[in-house]
User: Fold these one by one.
Assistant:
Number 1:
Amino acid sequence: MSDMLTVSGLVKEFDVRSTKGLRSSNQRVQAVSNVSFTIGNGETLGLVGESGSGKTTVGRCVLQLLAPTAGSVVFKGEELVGIDRSRMRDLRRDMQIVFQDPFASLDPRLTVGSAISEPLAIHRVEGDHDDRVRELLTLVGLSPDHARRFPHEFSGGQRQRIGIARALALNPSFLVLDEPVSALDVSIQAGVVNLLHDLQDEMGLSYLFIAHDLSVVRHVSHRVAVMYLGKVVEVSSAEELHGAPAHPYTEALLSAVPEPDPVVERMRERIVLVGDVPSPINPPSGCRFRTRCGRAEMRCAEEEPVLREVSQNHMVACHFPNEVPITIGARPA
Amino acid sequence: MSAPILSIRDLRVSFPTPAGLVRAVRGVNFNLEPGELVGVVGESGSGKSVSFLSIMGLLPPHAQVSGSAILAGQEMIGVDRDTVRRMRGKKVAMIFQDPLSALNPVQRVGAQIVEMIQSHQHLDDDAAHARAMELLDLVGLPQPDVRARQYPHQFSGGMRQRVMIAMAIANDPDVLIADEPTTALDVTVQAQILDVIQEIRRMTDTAVVFITHDLGVIARIADRVEVMYAGNCVEKAPVGDLFAHSNHPYTRGLLASLPVVGRDRLSPIVGAPPNMLAPPEGCAFRPRCPHAADECRGASGELVQAGPTLSACVRISEIGVSR
């Protein structure tokens, strides 16, 4: 399987202005710090992490919607970092994005048909755009007549389908899905998840699926990368990640997700992480997770763990991966 | 069984809008026993939040509320604002999804808790301050004395929610209403807050109404569950029975749509929730229900025993009761 996308050593820094009293100073925050991963043809890579982990920034950097500070993004053999704008615009036909909020991502004054055909006009695609719009609406499970309506006439789930139809208009082979179902109710979410599955099967799409909801990610992804404070801490197949997580943060994250089963919920032993995610402006030395980790030792403060293979296709950035059984992380008394 | 601490009868809430009357809550009955934790689950627009906001007297003045809600012996619906205000904070308290908008940004956190205590209890400043420290410690805020002198913007989301909980339990209320208190939080922080709520139950015997759309959270903490759909309660059951022996097509549909391990394809519920300007007559779930029949048009919404649960489905014995 050849790779659709190869990201290596990706870094994104932002300038932030911090004010203390009357004095202000400029600081740099590294939102994404040396992130590498690949996505194969027809593959879904889930990218999970909590707020501030940098997962959305990774998605934007991949599409060059944000310019990476350093690193490389190779899409179908072509380096995107530093590419000239007109070439990038051509490539965007092939790589598209679906956003979280289907209420904010559609122009309220454009009919659904115009919203979906806009990319066709921008890229001067030949042929009957109206036909293509009808075809796309049918593809995402809406009615072709919906083209004449406005976004406010649709529910959240329907709007997300419109967003997907627009992303598919130019027949891309790669989609960044940035929390595409997080704003939807579960009964609606399931339909959109199924749609994404079907589209992948039919069109051989590759997805970067960004989400904070691990149960959805597990369901849709072939492989999953877990981010913490701008770094990827673990990458593995979805099954192995959930069955045998090796990084203590992944373990804690999985154990924090409430399972919809009261019997399981009341039996399971839970790892409750203490405290909050530290500020990315001044991240901990060595391993960034060590301040909340039950396995942390001196070495973790001094030496940054690099991502290494612990079993086939299972990479972990931890000095002590999966050596202590599940009862890590001290709870407050 | 003791007398309920909160008893809601035929609660109805409507909002006049230019397009007509939105009937958000359409005849809810609800009992809460002292010390129990009841999960109220439903999707957006099911009326779960509006029901409890109406009891707190927190709806905008144009809302039309009828029915009865007796809390610790006091009627809360249709009474004057002073009566409701005296109850609020003392007998019943509420925490919300977004703690930042519920805290005063320009007042120190400690002072806000002290104000809450002194508005219902005759304590001098020192005693109220000591009580505030005790509360912050109880909700697991590290260094309460330092934190009390800080402002809300200096707190993380999880810490703010802990402060909200401290304020809510400041006057030992009989009932705590938690409206999606962990929805805006990351899962690891959510786990901490759920622990705090359970700890408070152990220590104070406060009864909790936990409103959420997350069935996983319900499975973790609720004793009993009420499922709401389109302004009505459609099923109520002890938590174990709701997940193992659900007897309403809507609840079954919700459970089938969850991405759980080993489920290859999800089963969404077809369609969308009804427009509450003109909800369907009879059973409101009818247009989306795979088992709908003519008799559903005349469904009264009354809950009847079906296996271990109480279900509003009139066809449940034909569809098949799970025991």
Note: Residues 186-203 of chain A form the longest helix (18 residues).
Number 2:
Amino acid sequence: MSRITETFTKLKAAGRPGLVTYITAGDPSLARTRDVLFALARAGADVIELGVPFSDPLADGPVIQRATERALAAGATLDAVLGLVADVRAELTTPIVLFTYANPVARMGFGAFADRAAKAGVDGVLLLDVPIEEAGEVQGLLAARDIDPIFLVSPTTTPERIRDAARLGRGFLYAISRLGVTGVRDRVADGAEALVARIRKETSLPLALGFGISHPDHVRAVGQWADAAVVGSGLVQVIAECGDSPSLVPRVEAYVRWLTGEVPA
Amino acid sequence: MAIRRAEIHETAVFGERDPDLRGYYGPFGGRFVPETLMAPVDELAREYFRVREDPVFLEEFHGLLQHYVGRPTPLYEARRLAAEAGGARIFLKREDLTHTGAHKINNALGQALLARRMGKRRVVAETGAGQHGVATATACALLGLECDVYMGAQDMARQAPNVLRMRLLGATVRQVDAGSRTLKDAINEAMRDWVATVADTYYLLGSVLGPHPYPLMVREFQSIIGREARAQLLAQAGRLPEAVVACVGGGSNAMGIFDAFIADAGVRLIGVEAGGEAIVPGRHAARFAGGSVGILQGTKTWVLQDAHGNIELTHSISAGLDYAAIGPEHAWLQQQGRTDYAYATDAEALDAFGRVARLEGILPALESAHGVAHALRVARDLGPEDIVLVNLSGRGDKDLQTVEKTLER
């Protein structure tokens, strides 16, 4: 059983929805990302999505675009991010999903990437601009190395393609709650509950719902329908505000504990 | 030999040389887009394959090309330019004489008609030099569609006349400050818009780029250029050319003129990329000279990228060629050896711009001047009976400010 599947199984047994947290690797620096990874785990993140910075993040809104620019300027590359995962793996038991655009992976070579990711201890890989139609090769390479290929499902995804995503995907499916790019929003998208219901009809894979989730109320609402809520831009914004200052780790921990309802604001 | 315009009335050709069902040209192409865009891209492909066989759609498209765009555009023999180069005869396909002043209008009208038919009320587009933006704004004005055009801040500064044109045509020009603030960043931003607005918005992509079916659709809407030029050349010179030369940014004017000659094995097809200041990372946009295969903005093709797969900054004096990827069908034709690619530097393009102006009384777009610059080299190696056909893809009014600055230096 993969570490991701194990995590969702435990959550289900505990009757508790999970929290998936996204950060951009290398913002403000890879050394600080290392600290943030442990802070997330301590504060109760159930799965960590580690974003690989890419020069052209066309699915991301301004918050993650800026984080990407800072990370690239600080020298974060796919190679270095894999190095970071390898470095923390022995001490960090929280599942890590690499969240990346296709080109850095294609540049390394899909086979070489799968080997390196497996060796580093990556638990899952989500390729943002590789839809199921293009994913055959890389899906096979990852699955053969016991890395969970994670697929996205959006409000525009047809039932047939949801089934394809469920067949090719492992670990969990990532449901995009709304049309548009990543970013902080005031409220959970109106169609989110219906989307979750629509996906549930086609698959029993755990479901994490994201895009626009940044507040404990959102997390609680999402937890009523989905197996986990994904928080990205809200957390990246906290990291942006702290930068390299000593407040980074405590602020990240406090934000995550606030999201889970463990502590008040 | 003078011929009347009506004698050459070719139509764009649809349904030949399709990519495979997944939108691949050999190993290039495909659909590398975020999940939310898969449904709209599927819908677009379905609708496109329907309309290209629909006589009502085709009649309206070709009617507009004739009566609104002013097609066929002339094929003109540039005798003084050829005489100075010394070598082959040079014929210019005068896309600069279309309504709005560049070949971009052919594709913009085709896709805007499709957008209206699909019931979309709003169009988004990207633009580099502004010619595609102007063409899209024009087509949207004509068909009553709302229009937003994304344009890099650097391009807005160097192509200011086109920004004003778009605004006068009723479009909203949205400034993009990300990355190199040029075409690539404008495409990112247009896609971000589209992903949020797919229900009522059509993305009108301006070149043979992006996910399937765009590379196919844009080539087919532009294929009128080559059909006309081939027939005109046969009528005027009685024979096919030795070489067809066209500048290549994404590569739509080149695909448009190459298409009719692909089956003519004896005709060399040469694309000319932007050599910029030098073939050094960040200072050019010659993908085949300094790039490698990668995945960018929906398609797998040759791109300019670093060792880690990040896209390199590009430079060209011409905004329309200042882009890090080339259309996937170009990559496939190149791999098969059917097309060749060369590059012209900023200085060579400016030199060609000056020659065409002084010797022929034509101000070409700086993009098109890259094609002319290399065509002159090709012509010099050929004999006086030989023919080089150049796609003069656009006019140079938009570039006067840029050229003026270089004259001051």
Note: The CA atoms of residues 344 and 374 of chain B lie 6 Å apart.
